[in-house]
Amino acid sequence: MRPPAAAAGAPLLQVRGLHARYGNTPVLHGLDLDLPQGQVTALLGANGAGKTTTLRALCRLSVQTSGRVALGGQAIEACSTEQIARLGVGHVPDGRGTFLGLSTEENLRLGSHARASQQGAEADMERIYGYFPRLRERARQQAGTLSGGEQQMLAIGRALMGRPRLLLLDEPSFGLAPLVVKDIFSIMRRINQEEGVTILLVEQNARLALALAHRAYLLETGRVVLSGSAAELRSNPAVQRAYLGE
After folding, report:
1. Residue 208 in domain
2. Which of 18, 32, 45, 233 has the lowest tally of Cβ within 10 angstroms?
3. Residue range 63-68: average pLDDT?
């Protein structure tokens, strides 16, 4: 059962005092985050700041956590990774997580398993192919033979097959050619604007992330040190020096 829709103006995702660790190694130290419904929020920071761990903590994926996490007003911090996916959270991990031995179409169909119902799955396949026509051309092709850009498109498409209300994206531009990155970010903007999918974006390219995002948080060593609108962070001198090369 999905949580109720967030009230107008309320955050879709609200995080309070989120801690995370791997074994005895703490990584996150009490994060507070608010993700407005229907907006793109960027999570910025240097390597090792805790960005990827934040996404994993929200999904309870391979990391130990404490703190409060609410989706649409419903507490989810005690839910399993599978339950969180069924409640409407899609995760595109770093490294893409593509099943290389399966075909493109088989990968997409796996994405629909997170949904409560398979009704409309075929229509959603067509919707994904509309965003990513190249995936239709590669439908029968083994995923391991796709280019890096095509695998990234497939990873995003597979997550969208779960009909997420919240999409967690981890470094979607990593290792891709600039033109491919431009295409993918253009499609992510369409998905946000046309479908109202809320997005939490981890992206090393701060300039790219802030161009897409409405709001942003800056992490340093597992703590939020700066937050505000994307425009505010773009104009912050410290962000400009450290992350925008200005």
Report:
1. yes
2. 32
3. 96
Q: Which of 122, 142, 160 is the last residue of a domain?
A: 160
Q: How much is the pTM?
A: 0.92
Q: Which tokens is 127 given? A: 């919707």
Is 188:221 a contact under the CB 8 Å cutoff? no
Sheet holding 198-202, edge to edge: 89-92, 166-170, 198-202, 40-44, 215-220, 223-229
Residue pair 59/230 in contact by the 8 Å Cβ criterion = no
* Domain housing 134: 98-160
Q: Which residues does residue 44 pair with via DSSP β-bridges, in sequence order?
A: 218
- Interior/surface letters 150-165, b for 16+ CB within 10 angstroms, e for the rest: bbbbbbbbbbbbbbbb
3 occurs within a structural domain: no
Residue 179 resides in a domain: yes
The region that residue 17 occupies, defined by phi over 0 for left and psi between -120 and 50 for alpha, beta otherwise, is left
Question: Is residue 111 a contact partner of residue 161, using CB atoms and an 8 Å limit?
Answer: yes
Q: How far is it, in rounded angstroms, from Cα 105 to Cα 108?
A: 5
Question: Are residues 77 and 134 located together in one domain of the fold?
Answer: no
Other Cβ atoms less than 10 A from the Cβ of 124: the count is: 20
What does the alpha-carbon distance between residue 105 and residue 177 come to, in Å, rounded to a whole number?
24
Name which of 77, 74, 62, 92 is nearest 31 in CA terms.
Answer: 77
